[in-house]
């Protein structure tokens, strides 16, 4: 049995802004089947403290943690073995976990997440009675200082793994804060955590952790190229031997069309989607239509390429297709999409974040559109596969790794599970939408694609085994 401390800034179902939370929340139970015991360290945001309740005990205290006292609490919540960093001066704030009321990053995000890494390192050093992990698994920049903090605390004999969920987020801070963040000035150089005159928390982890992973083999390759490495491609190339791409899975208990209590009519076969489609159209105020009902469930950011969809949309509408979109983010994009919905009968837009609605959309739609410019893995195309909702995706990162394009060869086998297009531009997306409409107009072909999609494995099993092997490799002898 391996003991692993997973460290992250979010974890479903407790606190979620994106796919990171899903992965951090799902991995522990997937790993349990592979002889790995995971305890998850999270910041004590109000939602986490409330979920923990009063049953927890204090396991370890710190008098002064970046401006105030702190302690580690423990408890079981939603099947997770949680360790919670209770530090009210850093985390007892309402609103977004990353952003202040003005929409900008909290000005002390450096200290907030340095504190998380510092306490992870303390746990690695044995501060909890009776439990010390063999491996610390850090997720994204918010946990990436952990290897440096282990070194600063003089802790050795612990394996470290850093997973990159999205290299666009790097945790950059002014260099003069370096010592306040309890970092070693001797590592402030181009092969350490220095990045264009700043401290990069992500680069700290990329240069100091024993092993690096990212969330698909395709993105692992892309990260080593300037177009995708966001300035860190050189670091990724230098650490090529320690970098692995391990595909994300989805929680098959939460995303199961046969037993999903959040959808109107659970189903096992594609034809069972019809009742869900009618309900979804009614819910969004969409009429019946000749073409496919497409959905988007997404953060509205540059990465996700939804500006391309705005340009390509007429092709779908001319063919009698429909769009129902759920998302939030970029204000201009929200306004443009809302305008489309106000002027087009076949476009409906819901601005906001709504987990239950996202299930109803997966169940009711014919296709899900994911036109991302880059996508480390992507989860919504995996939900789409499981629900027989064909993914139409850009050929990048994990989208390229998880969807089998409906090429003539793949259609004839038949193994195709969706549509891919490249480059990630409006013209290629228009072509993909036209191809989708063609396939949709042949019901038997479309039904076969849906069956193939629903049969594609999208769970955690083989990826959990890959993480377990990695933990074995980095564990001290
Ligand atoms: N408005 C809304 N309402 C309800 N639910 C919404 C929503 N907007 C988004 N979601 C949900 O949030 C999650 C988003 O996960 P993704 O993996 O698709 O992208 P994200 O960029 O957040 O994750 C990053 O990390 C993950 C995890 O490694 C990688 O898969 C991904 O490529 C990388 O960019 C999904 O569960 C989705 O259903």
UniProtKB/TrEMBL annotation:
Gene encoding the protein: glgA
Name of the protein described by the UniProt record: Glycogen synthase
Catalysed reactions, as listed in the record: [(1->4)-alpha-D-glucosyl](n) + ADP-alpha-D-glucose = [(1->4)-alpha-D-glucosyl](n+1) + ADP + H(+)
GO cellular component: cytosol
InterPro entries: Glyco_trans_1, GS/SS, Starch_synth_cat_dom
Pathway where it operates: Glycan biosynthesis; glycogen biosynthesis
SUPFAM superfamilies: UDP-Glycosyltransferase/glycogen phosphorylase (SSF53756)
NCBIfam families according to UniProt: glgA, PRK00654.1-2
CDD domains reported for this sequence: GT5_Glycogen_synthase_DULL1-like
Top-rank lineage group of the source organism: Bacteria
Residues bound to ADP-alpha-D-glucose: 16
The Glycosyl transferase family domain, residue ranges: 290-445
Molecular functions per Gene Ontology: alpha-1,4-glucan glucosyltransferase (ADP-glucose donor) activity; alpha-1,4-glucan glucosyltransferase (UDP-glucose donor) activity
Pfam families: Glyco_transf_5 (PF08323), Glycos_transf_1 (PF00534)
Protein purpose: Synthesizes alpha-1,4-glucan chains using ADP-glucose.
Keyword field: Glycogen biosynthesis, Glycosyltransferase, Transferase
The species this protein was found in: Pseudoroseicyclus tamaricis
EC number: 2.4.1.21
């Amino acid at each position: 049995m391996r003991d692993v401390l997973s460290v992250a800034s979010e974890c479903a179902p407790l606190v979620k802004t994106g796919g990171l939370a899903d992965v951090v929340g799902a991995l522990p139970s997937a790993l349990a089947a592979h002889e790995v015991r995971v305890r998850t360290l999270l910041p004590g945001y109000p939602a986490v403290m409330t979920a923990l309740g009063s049953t927890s005990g204090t396991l370890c205290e710190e008098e002064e943690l970046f401006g105030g006292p702190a302690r580690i609490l423990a408890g079981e919540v939603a099947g997770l073995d949680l360790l919670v960093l209770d530090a009210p001066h850093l985390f007892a704030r309402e609103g977004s976990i990353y952003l202040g009321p003005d929409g900008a990053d909290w000005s002390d995000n450096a200290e907030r997440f340095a504190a998380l890494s510092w306490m992870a390192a303390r746990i690695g050093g044995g501060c909890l009675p009776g439990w010390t992990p063999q491996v610390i698994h850090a997720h994204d920049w918010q946990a990436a200082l952990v290897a440096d903090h282990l070194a600063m605390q003089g802790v050795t004999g612990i394996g470290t793994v850093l997973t990159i969920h999205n290299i666009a987020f790097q945790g950059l801070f002014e260099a003069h804060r370096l010592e306040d963040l309890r970092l070693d000035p001797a590592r402030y150089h181009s092969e350490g955590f220095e990045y264009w005159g700043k401290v990069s928390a992500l680069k700290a982890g990329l240069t100091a952790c024993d092993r690096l992973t990212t969330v698909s083999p395709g993105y692992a390759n892309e990260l080593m190229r300037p177009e995708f490495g966001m300035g860190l491609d050189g670091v990724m190339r230098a650490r090529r031997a320690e970098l692995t791409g391990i595909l994300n899975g989805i929680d098959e208990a939460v995303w199961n069309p046969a037993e999903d209590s959040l959808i109107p009519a659970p189903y096992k076969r594609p034809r069972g989607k019809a009742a869900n489609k009618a309900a979804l159209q009614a819910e969004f105020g969409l009429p019946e239509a000749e073409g496919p009902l497409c959905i988007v469930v997404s953060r509205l950011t540059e990465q996700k390429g939804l500006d391309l969809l705005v340009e390509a949309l007429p092709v779908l509408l001319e063919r009698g297709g429909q769009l129902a979109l759920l998302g939030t983010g970029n204000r201009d994009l929200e306004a443009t999409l809302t305008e489309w919905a106000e002027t087009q009968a076949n476009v409906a837009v819901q601005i906001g974040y709504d987990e239950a609605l996202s299930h109803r959309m997966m169940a009711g739609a014919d296709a899900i559109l994911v036109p991302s410019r880059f996508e480390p893995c992507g989860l919504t195309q995996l939900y789409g596969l499981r629900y027989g909702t064909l993914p139409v995706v850009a050929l990048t990162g994990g989208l390229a790794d998880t969807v089998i394009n409906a090429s003539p060869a793949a259609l004839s086998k038949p193994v195709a599970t969706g549509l891919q297009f490249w480059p990630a531009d409006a013209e290629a997306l228009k072509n993909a939408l036209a191809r989708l409409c063609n396939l949709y107009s042949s019901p038997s072909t479309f039904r076969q694609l849906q069956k193939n999609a629903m049969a594609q494995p999208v769970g955690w099993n083989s990826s959990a085994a890959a993480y377990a092997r990695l933990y074995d490799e980095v564990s001290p002898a």
